[in-house]
Amino acid sequence: MLYIYHFSVAFTFVYILRFFQQRLSSMLALSHVPGPKTSSWVWGEEKVLYYNTPGALYLDWHRTYGNVVKFTGAFGHQLLSVTDPHAISFILGEGTYQFPKPKGVRAWFRMLLGEGILWVEGKEAHEKQRRSVGPALSPQSARNLTPVFYENAAKMVSQWHRLFDAQHSDEIVIEVTNWAGRFALDTVGRATLSYDFDCLRGQPHALAETLDGLTNHEKSLTSFYMKALFWLLPSILHLGKKGQMIRKTRKELGDLATDILKDAEAVSDPNSKTLMSLMLRADKATAVVRMNEEQVAAQMRTIISAGYEPVSATIAWLFFELATNLEWQQAIREEVSTAGDPTFDELNNAYPLLDAFFLETLRLHPPVLENHHEAAETISIPLSEPLAGSSDLHLVIPKGTIISLPVNVIQKDKLTWGFDADDFRPERWLHRGTRTSRELLAFSVGPRGCLGRNFAAAEIKALTVTLLRHFAFSCPHEIEAFQSFVIRPRVKGESSSSLPLMVRRTL
């Protein structure tokens, strides 16, 4: 027993010593990088980031200190926030596999979703999973599934008309975030799994409540501690109520995925166009070693999660902007008032006002605020301009340094978007050259970019076309952004996401 005790003490001492050696080495290597003074010796900037308006501090920092900002996390570990275009191109492009997700982020994905495409790292392993999942999320797949988007949009219209009839009025308040989540979950279920979650009936739904409850909550000390510490101690995700909720969500998604997988294998329809069928056929055709049941379930959990939160948040923000930009709302309504449901290609090419409004929503309201990476080894990255006081167009980043790419700052860069970069102006997308000046990072870019971007864009546009043909929207409340897993809207002062819009029947 004494030997075990001494060994434990020695191991702990060595771990602590190495921890502080690494921190000291990182501090020295990055000492020339500008950034804010540490506001807390224990929490660094984590607390002010957590309790402030989402993204506001990143904007202030970068407009004060430049394209590369150093700040401190819990217990003194150094982080970098990077908006330099050359650095971003390298991190997301050529250097993708040298900058994996941080250990804490990977632990979150593994615990919640399994070892799917969001968790996997390394070029060979990632490309193998991408080959299995990619065909299921291709533009052709989204093209084939566009009728499903309209069917679910029509269900939502029908349910809303029932709300009007029940209140004997042609103008009522509708909580849009709730319905956006129901639409997103039903659509990803039907399109990917041939499974109808039936959320659009409007009744309480266990899975929707579980997914929502995992991240849609007011800021609490427990959540702050977990957010601040999981970079250093990923195992903290297993503790407390949050850990229980993560395990519960994983189990519910896993049980559902297993049942659907068995049904799909039993039917084995070679003509099925659902993402599940396409994924299984692609895996069978390309993999030397096929995915086992848990690996398929991990991909299914991942697709459901990715198709729920980011999509529902984007829908909510788009309709908030429609409700506060009434001239644009009317102009888009007139643009989409053609007969019949637009095809996938028409949604992408035939409605420039709708497309501009959608892109501007993504620019100002990216669902994921930060894109996080960790330097796998000490590495030099290129810069488009040197740091203050230097002439060097490279920056050496120590191994283990966590890097944040703040999407909201990048997409409000005044050098790219102009002096009005902070303003919602969809017309900027109608000008020649805007699309090629810099790609939006809302879906990320490069080898690890979102495979489902075409699917999500078509789904959101199909819903927008359908709702604008039936209803008009206005917003009687002051709305603010708050950060859960994604950036959601809420009525100012409330604790969870909410977007009560005044909706008027036009048909």
Overview of this protein structure:
With 507 residues, this protein is an alpha+beta fold. The protein has a four-stranded mixed sheet with strand order 1-2-7-4, with helices on both faces. Strands 3-11-8 form a three-stranded antiparallel sheet. A two-stranded antiparallel sheet has the order 5-6. The model is unreliable at 5-12 (pLDDT under 50). The protein is globular. It is built from 20 helices and eleven strands.
- Give the fraction of residues assigned to helices: 40-55%
Distance between the termini: 79 Å
Structural class: alpha+beta
Number of strands: 11
List the helices and strands and how they pair.
Blueprint: H1 2-29, H2 46-51, H3 56-65, E1 68-72, E2 78-82, H4 85-92, H5 103-112, H6 123-133, H7 139-167, E3 171-175, H8 176-193, H9 206-215, H10 221-229, H11 240-267, H12 275-286, H13 293-324, H14 326-335, H15 344-349, H16 352-364, E4 370-374, E5 379-382, E6 394-397, E7 402-406, H17 407-410, H18 414-417, H19 434-437, H20 453-468, E8 471-474, E9 479-483, E10 487-491, E11 500-505
Parallel strand pairs: 2-7
Antiparallel strand pairs: 1-2, 3-11, 4-7, 5-6, 8-11, 9-10
Helix pairs in contact: 7-8, 7-20, 8-13, 9-11, 11-13, 13-16
Short synopsis of the structure:
With 507 residues, the protein is α+β, with helices and mostly antiparallel strands.
Name a few traits of the molecule.
507 residues, alpha+beta, four-stranded mixed beta sheet, three-stranded antiparallel beta sheet
